[in-house]
Write a structure and sequence with these properties.
The protein is an alpha+beta fold. It has a domain of 168 residues: Phosphoribosyl-aminoimidazole Synthetase, Chain A, domain 2, CATH 3.90.650. It has 26 helices and 28 strands. The chain has a seven-stranded mixed β-sheet with strand order 8-10-7-11-9-12-13. A seven-stranded mixed β-sheet has the order 23-25-22-26-24-27-28, sandwiched between helices.
Length: 735
């Protein structure tokens, strides 16, 4: 039985828009600018387009501070994805998106459709998707609910990515109490294209056709943009209708068809955009807005898979695998025939109009007639007066560890969920499909060859919520620096970043402070590393019952390798290779895994980080790798030198024999800006001459023993023992 929509007068009186995420002030502003009372469809469109997820109401003032251009950037923020020149006429296209809210209530479909959505952003630009990555954060209490969440999110990523045939080559999985009720599921996709084929999401030219292609529209994911712009509800069933359902096989057809239009029918194509958050309204209104035109759509022509759908439902559905194209008048049949050959729905559903009105027809009646700018440009922005959280104003004293048995501490550290290997989770992802993968998951960064060139791309996705909780500005800069370190360790020059900004409720002064301060750190670091922000998204309101997550910006970074022979992996290669440590190790234990191991918490101020020193070290390491002087390289991060040695030795069961002035505690220090590299005996003289005092000799690779003489202790164990702990711990804990 169809429900009657409220009249404009009833909307004003009963305020159903409050349930859609709008405030009274926003409704009043919309009404005043419209010059009349809006109907239910128009209020629905407002709710989607004025949500934080689409309009960036709180985050826009901060996003405007990001550095977004340099000599390589061809297209920055504002389109489906950003584009960077990589030479030989090619460009890399990449973007990241969050799907936190959907994944919390329907983990499989939430994660799967997160992958599907970000893939569409890439091919909407005209690029072939060649790799994906993911950054996941879960609670550290492995309850039955959390175990199911982890299992289903990983299955959703693998199920969609494997089926569509795009390799998952990197990412991260972290565990912290902050994410117990609010997981983070951030997906990143990378594409490659010819510079000349770049498309933009625009609907220009009076009389040109608006063409809907892909899956039919259903009632799944209705107004998911508003759902993603509010705190979590404990009433999960009430939220499930906001979660989309994906079909990777249809997405593969859609990808191939859209790329064929881009490459073979350029005379016909004016613009193309994914129907992502807020569905048909966001794609159509944004395309009209960017081109400065109006638009009329006939909703009776939209392919629908459910009967009796209202204009509100049709426009705000977030059914997956759908795209919107603007096609030059006279070329419509050419494009429709192409999609028909892929057995995909494709219909002309509207036209570009003169002026700037956005009109919708349904059953012969005008159900929406509002200025395009009222949906896209005239959205209010908000600034909360920031307030430093008390924990930052009065940090805990610096942590001083006590180590009585360094071997026992080492073994316990390797069993921590954040240090232990995640292989049994990410091995569900196909990393080799398309046969371009050079470095698969498990290293510092994924690396793929660029077909038809002599180049490769390295890519990583990193976050450090626990560090930002201690100092948002320094933590934000460290996250960018660590991403750059991961790329440098493979032999890549960092090019640029995409981001997912995951935070709590921005109307809270403390949360807004975290967002503002972390942006300062990110901006400073991107300028030092010459890695502008070319795309990204914001995911706010990551709170449950008023308790928010750590401030967690995910940084996705891509780097360029111009010499395939210089690609470097983390694994020790040969016994007899010499081991060197770049960077000075300090007593930096605040926020470290050792601190968590010994106290059960992270606390204190962040120490031992300097952006200029970090950049200098990275440049020195990259130069040594490019000179073919390095046989293995790995950055030091969680768990410090102790974790890094095991990660480097595990694959080939190779150990190290060495002597160092480091103390037992410093073995676990997490001083930033450090690398371990190995050098073949024949290259030692050239290596030492090139790097000078930047690296200290640590020891020599052995056939399996780990024998270290520290300043205050001696370690005598085997790589087999330590690697087994690191490889098996998490799988056991998740059982």
């Amino acid at each position: 039985m169809l429900q009657t929509e409220p009249t404009p007068e009833q909307i004003r009186e009963h305020k159903p828009y409050l349930q859609l995420g709008l405030t009274e002030a926003e409704y009043d502003l919309f009404t005043a600018r419209l010059g009349r009372l809006p109907n239910y469809t128009e209020v629905g469109l407002q709710s989607g387009m004025w949500s934080e997820h689409c309009a960036y109401k709180y985050s826009k003032p901060i996003l405007k501070t990001f550095w977004t251009k340099n000599e390589r950037v061809l297209m920055g923020p504002g389109e489906g994805a950003g584009v960077i020149r990589i030479g030989e006429g090619k460009a890399v296209v990449f973007k990241a998106e969050s799907h936190n809210h959907p994944s919390a209530v329907e983990p499989y479909e939430g994660a799967a459709t997160g992958i599907g959505g970000i893939i569409r952003d890439i091919f909407s630009i005209g690029a072939k998707p060649v790799a994906s990555l993911d950054s996941l954060a879960f609670g550290n209490q492995f309850t039955a609910h959390n175990q199911n969440l982890i299992e289903q999110v990983v299955a959703g990523i693998g199920g969609y990515g494997n089926a569509i045939g795009i390799p998952t080559v990197g990412g991260e999985i972290q565990f912290d109490a902050s994410y117990q009720d609010n997981p983070l599921v951030n997906a990143m996709c990378v594409g490659v294209m010819d510079e000349k084929d770049i498309q933009r999401g625009q609907a220009a030219g009076v009389g040109n056709a608006i063409v809907y292609v892909g899956a039919k529209t259903g009632r799944d994911g209705i107004n998911g943009a508003s759902f993603a712009s509010a705190q979590f509800s404990k009433e999960e069933d009430a939220d499930r209708s906001a979660v989309q359902v994906g079909d990777p096989f249809m997405e593969k057809l859609l990808t191939d068809a859209c790329l064929q239009v881009t490459h073979e029918h350029q005379d016909a194509l004016v613009g193309m955009q994914d129907m992502g958050a807020a569905g048909l309204v966001s794609s159509s209104a944004e395309m009209a807005s960017k081109a400065g035109f109006g638009m009329t759509l006939d909703l009776d022509l939209i392919p629908q898979r459910e009967p009796g759908m209202t204009p509100f439902e049709i426009m705000l559905s977030e059914s997956q695998e759908r795209m919107l194209l603007c096609v030059r008048a006279g070329y419509e049949q050419e494009v429709l025939d192409l999609f028909a050959a892929y057995d995909l729905d494709a219909v002309v559903c509207g036209r570009v109009e003169p002026g700037h009105q956005y009109r919708l027809l349904h059953h012969g009646e005008v159900v929406c007639d509002i200025p395009v700018s009222l949906l896209t440009d005239d959205v209010p922005t908000y600034t909360t007066v920031p307030q430093q959280p008390a924990r930052l104003a009065h940090p805990a004293p610096d942590f001083t560890p006590t180590i009585t048995d360094v071997g026992a501490t080492w073994r316990a550290l390797l069993a921590l969920p954040n240090i232990a290997s995640k292989r049994h989770l990410f091995q569900q992802y196909d990393a080799q499909v398309q046969t371009n993968t050079v470095i698969a998951p498990g290293g510092d960064a994924g690396v793929i060859r660029v077909r038809g060139t002599h180049r490769a791309l390295a890519m990583t996705a990193d976050s450090n919520g626990r560090l930002l909780a201690l100092d948002p500005e320094i933590g934000g800069a460290i996250t960018v620096a660590e991403a750059a370190r991961n790329l440098v360790a493979t032999g890549a020059e960092p090019l640029g970043i995409t981001d997912c900004l995951n935070y709590g409720d921005p109307s809270k002064p403390e949360v807004y402070y975290e967002l503002q301060e972390s942006a300062k750190g990110i901006v400073a670091a991107t300028k030092v590393f010459n890695t502008p922000v070319i795309s990204g998204n914001v995911s706010l309101y990551n709170e449950t019952s008023g308790v928010g997550i750590h401030p967690t910006p995910m940084i996705g970074m891509v780097g360029l390798i111009e010499d395939l022979e210089a690609i470097t992996t983390i694994a020790f290669k040969e016994a007899g290779d010499q081991v060197y440590l770049f960077g000075k190790t300090g007593d930096d234990y605040n926020g470290s895994s050792l601190q968590y191991l010994q106290t059960g918490a992270y606390a204190g101020r962040l120490t031992g980080f300097d952006l200029q020193t970090e950049k200098q070290t990275q440049d020195t390491v990259l130069a040594a790798i490019r000179a073919h002087l390095v046989t293995a390289a790995h950055d030091l991060a969680d768990g410090g030198l102790a974790a890094a040695l095991v990660e480097m030795g595990a694959a080939n069961r190779l150990g190290i024999q060495g002597t160092t002035a480091l103390t037992s505690a410093q073995l676990f220090a997490e001083t930033q800006g450090r690398f371990i590299v190995t050098v073949a005996p024949a290259a030692v003289a050239a290596f030492e001459a090139q790097v000078g005092a930047a690296a200290a000799h640590l020891g020599v690779v052995t056939t399996g023993a780990i024998t270290l003489q520290l300043a205050d202790a001696t370690i005598d164990t085997t790589i087999a023992e330590l690697a087994t702990i690191q490889e098996e711990a998490l799988a056991c804990q998740l059982k």
